[in-house]
Write a structure and sequence with these properties.
- About 40% of the residues lie in helices and about 15% in strands.
- The chain has about 280 residues and is an alpha/beta fold.
- It has two domains: about 90 residues, Rossmann fold, CATH 3.40.50.10860; about 120 residues, Rossmann fold (3-Layer(aba) Sandwich), CATH 3.40.50.
- The strands form three sheets. Strands 1-11-8-7-5-6 form a six-stranded parallel beta sheet. It has a three-stranded parallel beta sheet with strand order 3-2-4, with helices on both faces. The protein has a two-stranded antiparallel sheet with strand order 9-10.
- α1 packs parallel to α10 and α6 packs across α10.
- The protein is globular and about 50 Å long.
- The model has no long low-confidence stretch (mean pLDDT about 95).
């Protein structure tokens, strides 16, 4: 039976460390690190995420600034706000909550965002730096995945890692981070042939495809580390991309949903904000 990787407990311990760092930053720069969150529209899930991020900031000693724009806000008004925050010296990190309303091109908004304040790690500059193996503000969920893998104490060097999913938000950046940790990485997706044959050889399996309980027992190598990034809502319950009941019978370590990767995403956002406040 797999050992549960308790993301909630690990996130709490990590945030305790970040609280110490936040106090140190106040001593260095004479003010708290600042995170600005921009929410456009009234998406219920996004409102919850923003609220959780603000609470997390307050808990560790980061000053939060929340900006709420109506659903019909123009692209120009969003870009103007981001540009203003770029120039605000009390703001170290800027997070534009995605997805944006369909009439606003996310790429144009991210393009105007100062990469030194891009604590989500989605800008071309940070994505490119990650690809090149340079120090940068990397995407939060992928960083959280790596932290949870390391928490098992397993040496990642030389392990076969398989990522199911190729999104710019999780799949691609987590693959780059796995490479940086000396794994041999395979990226799979909806067009991959004989997927189970590939995943069943993975020492580390990261599922990030957005399909309820897609990964079954036969797709998991005995003893593997399974990281489930999926958040699928069905009939009022949350499900991961991994069939937890089945996979936990063969995996060595596994993250639950909820309580696995999710808490680490916000924790890494806080870590990136402090990193930005330190000037990288």
């Amino acid at each position: 039976m797999a050992k549960i990787i308790d993301g909630k407990a690990y996130a709490e311990s990590k945030r305790a460390q970040l609280s110490v760092e936040a106090k140190d930053i106040v001593g260095r720069i004479g003010r708290p690190a600042g995170l600005a969150v921009v929410l456009v529209g009234d998406d219920a899930a996004s409102k919850v995420y923003v609220g959780n991020k603000i609470k997390a900031c307050e808990a560790v000693g980061i000053k939060s600034f929340a900006y709420y724009l109506p659903h019909d806000a123009t692209k120009e008004s969003v870009i103007e706000l981001v540009d203003t925050l770029n120039k605000d010296t009390s703001v170290d990190g800027i997070l534009v909550q995605l997805p944006l309303p369909k009439h606003i091109d996310e790429r144009e908004v991210l393009a105007i965002l100062d990469p030194k304040k891009d604590v989500d790690g989605f800008s071309k500059q940070n994505a490119g730096a990650l690809m090149l193996g340079e120090d940068c503000l990397a995407a939060c969920t992928p960083m959280g995945c790596i932290e949870l893998i390391k928490s098992t104490g397993v040496d990642m060097t030389g392990l076969n890692a398989v990522v199911i999913g190729r999104s710019n938000i999780v799949g691609k950046p987590v693959a780059m981070l796995l490479l940086q940790n000396n794994c041999t990485v395979t990226i799979c997706h909806s067009k991959t042939k004989d997927l189970a044959a590939i995943t069943s050889r993975a020492d580390i399996l990261v599922a990030a495809i957005g399909s309820k309980e897609f990964v079954t027992k036969d797709m998991v190598k005995p003893g593997a580390i399974v990281i489930d990034v999926g958040i699928n809502r069905f009939e009022g319950k949350l499900y991961g991309d991994v069939n937890y009941v089945e996979a936990s019978k063969v995996a060595g370590y596994i993250t639950p949903v909820p309580g696995g990767v999710g808490p680490m995403t916000i924790t890494m956002l806080l870590a990136n904000t402090l990193k930005a406040a330190r000037g990288m």
